[in-house]
Design brief:
Blueprint (H helix, E strand, L loop, with lengths): L6 E3 L3 E3 L3 E4 L3 E4 L4 E5 L3 E4 L6 E5 L10 E5 L6 E8 L18 E5 L4 E10 L4 E5 L4 E10 L4 E4 L3
Length: 156
């Protein structure tokens, strides 16, 4: 997907084939909608001047979307020069127990991999990033702002 956007997402998306998202792409997600990366990988590659943005569709209503959940161990999962904001409307399942479910902009499941760099993770109704303790999460140069439960919960 490229910068010919915004893309309005009105229902859940399961990424089940390799997906590359390039600079300037903007996703506006409806209330409680999520993106789940399963059995494949998602590479998000923005630039400093044209980041990829994941945000809520209706800011006037004050709604939150659910977030992005990674459930794949593919080490090509990456998010670089990205803004992820206003997620965390309700919990996402990460791990085998319901006590591990978290509200977050980004959630990384058991034995899953994700590299996040040069990112702004903000205004979550839960955590900025939540990761199960055995996830392979790498972060570099992240700005966290106004995440209601905290920035990173990496010991779920």
């Amino acid at each position: 997907l490229n910068g010919d956007s915004p893309y309005y997402i009105s229902s859940e998306i399961d990424v089940e084939a390799p997906l590359t998202i390039t600079e300037g792409t903007r996703f506006e997600l409806a209330e409680d909608v999520y993106i789940s990366v399963e059995e494949a990988y998602m590479q998000v590659s923005g630039t400093p001047d044209m980041p990829v943005v994941f945000t809520r569709a209706n800011p006037e209503a004050g709604h939150y979307w659910r977030g992005i959940r990674y459930r794949t161990s593919d080490n090509r999962n990456s998010m670089d020069h990205v803004v992820v904001e206003y997620g965390g409307s309700s919990t996402m399942s990460i791990g085998p127990y319901s006590s591990q479910n978290r509200r977050a902009n980004i959630a990384v499941d058991s034995n899953s991999s994700l590299s996040v760099s040069n990112a702004i993770i903000s205004d979550s109704n839960g955590w900025g990033i939540a990761a199960i303790s055995n996830a392979n999460l790498s972060t570099e140069n992240i700005t966290f702002e106004n995440n209601q439960e905290g920035d990173v919960d990496d010991d779920v």
